[in-house]
Amino acid sequence: MRSRIEKFGLIGLGLIAGVLISLQLSAIADKESAEPLPIEELRAFSEVFGRIKSDYVEPVSDKKLITEAITGMLTGLDPHSAYLDTEAFKELQIGTQGEFGGLGIEVGMEDGLVKVIAPIEDSPAYHAGMKSGDLIIKLDDVLVKSLSLSDAVKRMRGKPGSKITLTVVRKDAPKPLLFTLTRAIIKVQSVKSKLVEPGYAFVRITQFQEHTGENLASALNNLYKQNQAPLKGLVLDLRNDPGGLLNSSVAASAAFLPKDALVVYTEGRNAEAKMRLSAVPDDYLRGNEKDYLKSLPPAVKSVPMIVLVNGGSASASEIVAGALQDHKRAIIMGTQTFGKGSVQSVLQLGNNTAIKLTTARYFTPNGRSIQAKGIVPDIIVEDPATMDQDQTFRMREADLERHLTNSQEQDTKTDGSTKPAIPAPVAPAKPAPKREEGEAAKPKLLEFGSKEDYQLQQALNLLKGVNILQGK
């Protein structure tokens, strides 16, 4: 028996040692990385490999064990690194193009449970009333604790029209809530726009996709044509925008900033991870694309602007908000953003799989790290619909298990400047209707950009010169 264990263990040891040696050789130029092979840990790995092969209740293939080992290596690093099998890699590519199947939830992992970062607007999850911070503990009859994040996402994906029941723990609910959702093709309209009043425009970016830059340019051109005069003010809405493609966030920033203005820079261990991206076509166009921002009216660069953000504004949307704030191009209004200031590189492997690996941190033009801090608004305006929620339970990057720390080690309650954010008066929230225990709440959904949108109305008041800092 022992000889069998040793045989299987040696196979595992050979595999992992080969990988480590190849990695060590590729990093030989980095003296800090050229450490001796961890012999004791390799011995433990080989013993575990051998024990599973010889003693596990059912036969397990080498392929499965190695795949699970790779998955564990990545998920143990931080909440955003992951192994993408063939299906997951394909879904990631489809998702950046703005159409995919599923429930419409941006999720992460915490303590072995799936945590909702934000429901995607107009999706089944959004219309059912799921909220940021919800913890999914069961998918139909399967406990999430037994699944990896990629496995959980696979179960939530499925044929459009099919149903799935999610069991959710919510901080303000005495019992778990049940959501029965119907899967659908999620078509994310990246840019929405309209004239809310004569002279005042509203532009909402829901997610940064491949064509967000072109869509934004088209929306701005149409708004100026509709108004038939220079705009008096513009509200850029990035609330609940979970992010997306980096070059699209640079394009959105470049639409409003002077040419050559720095948008964001990144710092990582390798030279490829160190970038400085500015408001120039080379930093936001894909390949031989035509410069779609060139046709924008010059007045776009100087129109008074408010940017709306909240705890669901993450990653690429934080890059835009930080760039416009640092260049004093816009006033940031709303609540503190999510704080996802890390860069994930998708590194394709040779078998139609890939790894999504955190390779750098984002910094705003003035050198502020976004990671685990986010962007603090210039003027804090709460959404009255969420005022009844305990502030402690609002989820941000800093709440995720194994999140990267902020290298600047500043107080998370400040934005690194000496000027504190200014709170604005908030309308009292209406009491929520009573419901039976265990019943999932289905509140009246706020339509961003509507007359009932309190934060938008405050932004318009500020643009019109009304002093919103003095209330009753």
UniProtKB/TrEMBL annotation:
GO terms for cellular component: outer membrane-bounded periplasmic space. Gene3D superfamilies: 2-enoyl-CoA Hydratase, Chain A, domain 1, 2.30.42.10, 3.30.750.44. Residues 402-416, 433-444 have a biased composition (Basic and acidic residues). GO terms for biological process: proteolysis; signal transduction. Belongs to the peptidase S41A family. One of its GO terms (molecular function) is serine-type endopeptidase activity. Residues 402-444 are annotated as: Disordered. It holds the Pfam family CtpB_N-like. Keywords: Hydrolase, Protease, Serine protease. Its EC number is 3.4.21.102. Residues 422-431 have a biased composition (Pro residues). This is Carboxy-terminal-processing protease. NCBIfam families: prc. Residues 89-157 form the PDZ domain. It is an enzyme of class 3 (hydrolase). The keyword Hydrolase applies. It comes from the Bacteria. PANTHER family: CARBOXY-TERMINAL PROCESSING PROTEASE CTPA, TAIL-SPECIFIC PROTEASE.
